[in-house]
Specification:
By secondary structure, the protein is mainly alpha-helical. It has six helices and two strands, in the order αββααααα.
Length: 131
């Protein structure tokens, strides 16, 4: 999963369509970064995001996190990502949601697994494949 980010001028679509797709990809990348990697504690290499704090909310936090992760998958579908890749993306969300239900260990797993950043990498690799 070491796919590099797609640059806006690498997406080959006519006219403004390429710009709009690039803007959507950039917006989704920012969302995933905020959810999974926006913060870092000094002395700790692992980054964490807003979803780590959402996990602290009993019951509803995991549901909100899953909904935000599913939004990224839904947008990937709208961008034309193949069903096979969408299934991988859904599996990442499901793994994070199911394991995240386990108190404390699930929260630690969510912090390390970073399903949203994994899904962005899958989506960008798929969109880059079309070039």
């Amino acid at each position: 999963m070491s796919a590099r980010p797609i640059e806006p001028d690498e997406i080959l679509l006519p006219g403004d369509a390429a710009r709009r797709v690039a803007e959507r990809v950039a917006r989704l990348r920012r969302l995933a970064w905020w959810l999974n990697g926006a913060f870092r504690l000094p002395g700790i290499r692992t980054r964490f995001g807003v979803d780590t704090f959402l996990n602290l909310v009993p019951g509803g936090g995991d549901a909100v996190q899953a909904a935000l992760s599913l939004y990224i998958v839904w947008e990937a579908r709208r961008l034309g990502v193949r069903p096979a890749i969408l299934k991988c993306m859904l599996a990442n969300v499901a793994i994070e949601a199911v394991v995240g239900v386990v108190p404390i260990l699930g929260d630690l797993f969510d912090t390390v697994f970073k399903a949203d950043l994994r899904n962005i990498a899958l989506m960008e690799a798929e969109l880059g494949r079309r070039r």
